[in-house]
Amino acid sequence: MPKTKKDKQGHRDQADLHRSLLRTALLIRRFEEKTAEMYALAKIAGFCHLYIGEEAVAVGAIGAAREDDYVITTYRDHGHALARGVEPKRIMAELFGKATGVSKGKGGSMHLFDVSRHFMGGHGIVGGHIALATGMGFAIKYEKRDQVVLCFFGEGAVPTGAFHESLNLAALWRLPVVYICENNRFGMGTPVERSSALYDIAHVARAYDMPFHHLDGMDILESYKHMSQIIKGVRSAKRPIFVEAQTYRYMGHSMSDPAHGHYRTKEEIDAQKSRDPIQQLKQHLLEEKQIDEKAIRLMEEEIDGIVQDAVKFADESPDPPLSSLMDDVYVD
Amino acid sequence: MPILAYREALNQAMSEEMRKDPSIFLMGEEVGFYDGAFKVSKGMLKEFGPMRVVDTPITEAGFTGVGVGAAMVGLRPIIEMMTFNFAILGLDQIINNATKLHSMSGGQLKVPMVFRGPNGSAKRLASQHSQSLESLYCHIPGLKAIAPSTPKDAKGLLKSAIRDNNPVICFEAQALYGTKGEVPDGEYTIPIGKADIKREGKDVTLIAWSKMLLLCLQTADFLAKEGIDAEVVDPRTLRPLDMETILESVKKTHRVVIVEEAWPYGGVSAQISDRIYYGGLDDLDAPIERVCGEDCPIPYAKNLEEAALPSSEKIIAAVKKVLYLK
Ligand SMILES: Cc1ncc(C[n+]2csc(CCOP(=O)(O)OP(=O)(O)O)c2C)c(N)n1
Ligand SMILES: [Mg+2]
Predict the structure, then answer these.
(1) Phi, psi of A39 (to 5 degrees)
(2) Where are the domains of chain A?
(3) d(CA B42, CA B124)
(4) Residues within 8 A of A (CB atoms), B 177-206 only
(5) pLDDT over 90 percentage in chain A
(6) I want to staple B99 with a disulfide (CB 3.0 to 4.6 A). Which of B91, B142, B246, B323 is the partner?
(7) What is the rounded CA–CA span in Å between residue B65 and residue B184?
(8) What is the DSSP letter of A194?
(9) Whole-number Å distance between alpha carbons of A271 and A267
(10) Is it the case that residue A2 has pLDDT exceeding 50?
């Protein structure tokens, strides 16, 4: 890439792009560490599912997408929203249940929406949103647009009917959807070996004659590189693709589930942490001299500031007015 | 009498019945290795093994149908739904198959199956995870529906449900699982279709089930301080309804408030109210009041969620209304 011209995402060169991917991943990590703290202080309640450990998938995929491509995901949605550029303070305000939250305090952690950024939500019913993504793909085809849909879901959604019906439809009708399975090895306390008859999850796409890819979901640069090609392919070939990103969640299923104990050991988690996506990328950029320690420190300080501001904003924001209870039930 | 938690009472009901009848099995998400998403089936995998305590993938439509199919050829499944919000995925199997097969086959087939799990809101879970859906089920002929509010009722009613030869829906609640109460020693059942007076009173009849029953008992104490003596009736079974007990109470108090967590439109409370008007109109001294969830999806924000659900304040206001008090 020439040094002076910026690419579509506004990066001057490859090092600039890599730093920006690192920055997004770090923002997600710090934001969610703070989220866990705020949950412990009861500023946040209900179900709250952290993405810590899995950042490479959303950072790579959404980083590789065009701004007008649609993103839709599950309840584990903070990372995707941040990667899409949704304002951290309005996400934190949503987690706090405040009027200034992206969903006006009505959705909470599981239901972040920012339609202006084509962030089509966090969804709570496993599998259901996969059909919604397919419908967005249908609309894109219908209107002869050239966007694609990035649809994220856990491996736990692969056995659902909505998943299979959607894949068949998307393949049959050639819809521009990237189905991204975030295989973090567990659906709540159930390891994938006990939920899927397929040993190799990606092979499910074969049933629908859909191309598929395996992706190292712990490697931000690989995720970005492959997703760029995949999205380009879907956009030009106008047909769906299935991606299995092999990743790992460090935390419990939700804030009410301990990280380890019942269904996995601390040793297993520690082993995965040795491939931490953020550490790997930092290391790589340092080795390649694309960043130095000082720049990393500055980046971390900047992000800490953003996260602090987000908490302050959320804390100081008003509760939604009681009069808003019946708002938005119907469109006026 | 031993004191048990609601979840332990359910566990005892299932375990005791499973010890006696090898055709009974429990199936659902996280019921085995994880000991139940809400620990209702704690220890059951260990006792009964993986053929009888069966973990499933996230496939509600599939395993609800598997339950129906197994029941068609002689087994007696207990299908646990992680919550009733997800049970919606299995609703097709309930409506189109479980409740039709006996009649559609001219009585040749039966579906002795229990479909159970937590229903309703459970603090800040937002609109997809907070729904009270009993009226959807109660609408359907061929189904029975129970909604126990105490550990004793939970055990006795679930046993009856397991022994029943029809599909029975059991509505539990996350907020109830940890609540404790006396449970009789030894064998007992509580018949399906029998209401229970949970508190005797003479001024007004409060009708509620499941978690709302506890709210009504608490509210009855507040009312007592104001000199209002409320009777609290727990239908316990939502279909078939024990109108005899309810009408008896109406005859005594002449005033009725029905409390239901679900939305007002087409709710079970509307059905009960209809039956009271039909069978007890002459006994009423005031129109029936219904206190329901507000007619909107349940929001996440604390203040909005509280405002969306029935509360003591709302119940007291309704009681004063039927008593024509300011
Ligand atoms: C239809 C449905 N059934 C059950 C649940 C409860 N539930 C929420 S998350 C989850 C596990 C999902 O695992 P996976 O798809 O692998 O996603 P992950 O949480 O690992 O990101 C379950 C069973 C649900 N939300 N929706
Ligand atoms: Mg998973």
Answers:
(1) -65, -45
(2) 14-192+208-260+280-312
(3) 26
(4) none
(5) 95
(6) B142
(7) 35
(8) G
(9) 6
(10) no
Q: Is the pLDDT of residue A36 over 50?
A: yes
Find the Cα–Cα–Cα–Cα dihedral B60, B63, B64, B66, rounded to 10°: 160
Query: What is the Å distance from ligand 1's center to A11 Cα?
Result: 36
Shortest CA gap B265–chain A (Å): 14
DSSP structure class, residue A114: B
CA dist A22 and A31 (Å) reads 14
Report whether CATH 1.10.10.10 matches the domain B196-322.
Answer: no
Distance, CA of A21 to CA of A15 (rounded, Å): 10
Q: Give the number of other CB atoms < 10 A from CB of residue A251.
A: 21
CA A188–ligand 2 middle distance (angstroms): 7
Look at residues B319, B301, B259 and name the one whose alpha carbon lies nearest to residue A323: B301
The phi and psi torsions of A99 (rounded to 5 degrees) equal: -60, -25
ipTM of predicted complex:
0.96
Domain at B3-182, CATH class: alpha beta
Whole-model pTM: value is 0.97
Structure tokens that stand for A274 in this block:
């040795």
Which letter, b or e, does each residue of B217-227 get, where b requires 16 or more Cβ atoms within 10 Å of its Cβ? bebbeebeeee
**Cα gap B80→B103, rounded to integer Å:** 25
Ligand 1 lined by A157 (C-beta under 6 Å): yes
Annotated catalytic residue within B30, B129, B248, B294: B129
Residue whose CA lies nearest to ligand 1 atom number 17: A154
Q: Are B71 and B78 in contact (CB under 8 A)?
A: no
DSSP string over B2-38: -EEEHHHHHHHHHHHHHHH-TTEEEEETTSSTTS-TT
Q: What tokens were used for A322?
A: 């009681």
Active site residue B60: yes
Q: pLDDT digit string (tens) for A269-301?
A: 999 999 999 999 999 999 999 999 999 999 999
Determine the residue of chain B that is closest to A189 in CA distance: B34
Domains of chain B by residue range: 3-182, 196-322
Contacts of A183 by beta carbon, 8 Å cutoff, 6+ apart: A154, A155, A192, A201, A217, A244, A245, A246, A247
Q: Given its phi and psi angles, is residue A171 left (phi above 0), alpha (psi -120 to 50 degrees) or beta?
A: alpha
Question: With contact defined as beta carbons under 8 Å apart, do A18 and A287 qualify?
Answer: no
**Mean per-residue pLDDT, B120-129:** 98
The whole-angstrom separation of Cα A153 and Cα A61 is 13
